[in-house]
Structures are given as structure tokens and as C-alpha cells.
Amino acid sequence: MPIALGLEGSANKLGVGIIFHPPSTPPSPHDSAHSDDEVPKSQSKPSASSQVQILCNLRHTFVSPPGTGFLPKDTAAHHRRWVVRLVKQAIKQSKIQIEDIDCICFTQGPGMGAPLSAVAIAARMLSQLWDKPLVGVNHCVGHIEMGRTITGADNPVVLYVSGGNTQVIAYSAQRYRIFGEALDIAVGNCLDRFARVINISNDPAPGYNIEQLAKKGGDVLLDLPYAVKGMDVSFSGILARAEEMARRLHAGRKGEQDLWKEGDKVIGEEDLCFTLQETLYAMLVEITERAMAHVGARQVLIVGGVGCNERLQQMMGMMAADRGGSVFATDERFCIDNGIMIAHAGLLQHSMGFRTKLEESSCTQRFRTDEVLINWRD
Amino acid sequence: MSSLPIDEAFPHSLTIEIPFPSQRLATAALRSLAVDQELSALVKRDFDLVSATNGLSGDIAQPDSNAVLQVHYKATTPRMLRVAVNGFFESLSVVVQVMEELDVDVLHEKGIEGLEGVQGVEQGLTGTAVGVRS
Fold first, then answer.
1. Do residue A134 and residue A250 come from a single domain?
2. Is B132 within 8 Å of A359 when comparing Cβ atoms?
3. Contact at 8 Å (CB) between A271 and A298?
4. Which Gene3D superfamilies does this chain map to (chain B) (predicted)?
């Protein structure tokens, strides 16, 4: 039965998902004289917008204390502690038997080395004990395919934004091509590291807490650099400047400097968060629009953890509407790293005959989105 | 423990033997752990499957031969050896946990660990499987 178990652990979220691709019954235009061999390839390709059934989608997040980020060693230890119980619960909740499962899918990269390997070891064990093929999945492709299926967006320009990745992607000739990307750090990484210097909680995610603070701002837009470089973006300079601002804020409060005021307003964290979001998201909207103009697309799909942000969705929506297009986004079950997207992309790969040999199942931190042959699409 | 000749370039070494209940499990462990390369060039590692020697298995019955996973580590410094071996045991813990709770014969037994803070858990498992079984 086309059911896949997906294991995701490239960052601080450990996700285990089980997905079912009900076989569709496409009406055959051929008469009964033709044998099955002559059915053209496009007939047998699973369509992304056909029904999928999510049998279960479990996730446990490793949250580090305020003022800190998650380190590879601790994150890997977290994944090792949780992977077995999540898989057990996933099987229980889906009410399936091992015989029902077609393949074990896992994130092969990109991401953090130790956490990826911790999960890969579990995947390899399951593959052998249950006698199921392994399918190594590219994390970015997982996000894209899940976004397409959940939203029904057929061929959008994809903005993939998370703590580890920032890419503008468009599909062409069986590859997800990268049109633009962050040159240094990802936009989510910029947000997460800024959250550390203003010492806000990392629970449920630092970016979420920045968003809530930013909603309280809006009266003042401070001065941050704007670093779009053609189709690409750069965030490390903006982060450095934002960290400077945070230091100035604290110094003013401690009396080491004058209290920071713009006009009558006493500047607080909410103003810094508001300014940072407006600047970062405007940059992302610009490079997405550039890609849309380049390929003539009208749909934008936002995937990745930063895609949960309502302000980003709003700004992107304004741009898309100006161009007569629309924005697609998923909710936090799917835009934040999860196991279902790995199961989904993995099952698509598996259906086209793709297998990962055990000896070739080591993980890699650098796995480009366009390295994967997207042969389930035309 | 067999004594191996000391490699002068990697003078600090350790041989670990893990007995498993069956060759099937020992093989699965070896193949899962052998895939990832050692991160440091200052550490070398070899895996092997051996049979239990007298007194090794303790109270585990050893009907299978080649059910003992033997790993030989050698490193340039004691610190590198310790780091590598610690990493091995951490990975081994996942291997053993999967065997203990997720193998075909124990998968459907009750879990021994809690699920606090897990998103997506259905309380009481009231969700239906939505027509999975035809």
C-alpha cells in the first residue's frame, strides 16, 4: 500500500509522519486493445494535487533557554531521546501494520550534521528490522512538495524561508531551480540570533515571539540597511546593525547612555522587532517578485518555518495582488519542519523507483535543492 | 579481547564487543553504524561480527554465531579516542532502543516513555484511519 513513514531531524524539530497516497483511478483514453505497457508515462505519474491522507503528524521541538541557540550536540541528543517513542506513537495512531508500509523516508540533508545522523541511524535500523527500502529525501524538496499538495498551488514560485535556508525556487524541466538565495545566513537565522540578544523566549520559536512583539510596534521605523543583491539577499550586515541597536537600547536603560527616544517615543524591543521584520520581509518580497517577473508566474508559495509569519504573508499578498496573482501558505503543522513532508516527498520518489542503498545513506549538510531529479512532474 | 599490534600512528586504541541476542540484530547494528565516516582523520575505526567467546555472553543465550558486534577504535590521542568512543555509544543507544521497542515483535506493545510536549498526538487515539484497510 502506498504508505510511507517519514523521519525529519535536520534542525531542532524532530518530526515523524505517516502518509498514505490513495491510488487514483485515472480514466484511460486508450481502448482495451492497447496493453498497459503503452500507457504514456504522464498517465501513471501521481498528481500532486490528488488526495493524500495524513495518517499522523507528530513533532517534538528542542527548545533552548532564552539568550541561547540550539547546538548540534544537544540537538542530536534530543533527537536520540525522542525518535523511538515518536515512531511507536505514530504507528499506534495510524493504526497500521508494518506490512502496510512501503518505505522508510528520512531527511538526508541539508541541515545540521549530528542531528541528521542521529535520525538516519534510526531510519537504517527500521529499514533492516522491518525489511523496507530506505528513501533519502532532500529537506527543501520536502517543504516544496508538501506546500504544493496542501495548498493546491500547481506551479508557483516558491519562497522557502526558514532558520537554515532562504531560497527563491521555480520549477523547470524536472528540477527545482534556485533563482535567488541568501548569500550568508538564512533569514530565520537572522531572526533567531536577534531574539537571543533581546533575550526573549525560544518557546515555541524565537521568530514567533519576535512577531508578537513586532505587532506592538509600528509607530516608528528605525534605520536598518537594506541588502538586496540582484536576485540574492544578504542578512549578516543587517543582523550586526540590529544587534548594535539592541546594545544601545540596553545601555540607555541602564543609564550608560541617554535613553533612546525617537521624537516622543521611547524605543523598546517592539520597535526593533517591527523594524527588523519590515526590512527583512520587504527584501524577500522584492526577490520573489523578481523571480515571478522572470518566469511569468502568478502564484507564490511560501514554505518553511518563517512562512508561518503573518506579516510576511500579508506583504507578499500585497505584492502578488498588484501583479494579479495570489499567495499560498500552509499552517504551522506543515510550514514548520515535520515528518509528513519527508514521507510525502519520499513516497513520490519511491513511486518513481528511487531507493537509497543503506551504504549510501549517510547524511550531508550541503544538499542543493536542484540536485534532486523531480521525475514525478513533467 | 584479542590483542592487536599497536599502530604507531594511532597508539591509543580500544576494542569493544557488544553481544546481541541474534545475528540478525548484530548485523543490523553493524550496517547502521558503519555507514557514517569518522568525523576526524585522527581516529580510525573497524567493525566486525564475531562469535561469542567463553564468559562474554553472561546470561544471554548465544545460539547464533557472529552475534557479537566488535568495533576496534584507534586514535592519535586519548582525547580523540574518548570523543569517538563516546559518540559510538550514543549512536549505539539509538540502535538498541529501536531493537527494544520497534522490532517487528514488540512494535505494538505499550511504549515505555512519555509523550509530553509532542504536537499531533491524538488523546485516546480516537482518530479513525480513514479507510486505510480496503
1. no
2. no
3. no
4. Alpha-D-phosphohexomutase, C-terminal domain
